[in-house]
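thread: overnight batch results

M.L. [08:02]
morning all. the overnight job finished for the chain we discussed friday. pasting input first so we're all looking at the same thing
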Amino acid sequence: MENPSEEPHARWQELPSWLLTQTANHAHRLVTDGFSAVDARGYHFRVLATLDEFGPASQAALGRRSGIHVSEMVATINELAERALVERAPDPSDRRRNVITLTAAGKKQLRRLEKQLAERQDELLAPLSAGERKRFTELLAKLLDHHDRRGDQAS
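M.L. [08:03]
and the structure it wrote out:
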């Protein structure tokens, strides 16, 4: 067939889990490509956005707020500090702990990353109307919240 979208689908191709996985793969590729275009990674965005929203924080608090494991947090902070996007300084109340602060350059990089994300969201959701996008996001958030709460109960 000339148009692959006209081919009949196998049953498994209509399963929500399969559709979510395939769409997540596209979303991941789009976002990764967008961040790569400005020499960044997803963890960079999460750290910079968390600092912008909540202010300076210890590495541990920053890890909890951004959902980044401590082993990845150190490397991410190192990368951001090398680029002067964050500053790392000893906590005056506990010299064993570092406080991470967003710099002006970090704020500028965050704006570039937000622009990339907005463009990638538009690309991913292109076939949906504004109302469909809103509803789709609400439904995904509902699913995620449900499964996150189930995971919390299992712990």
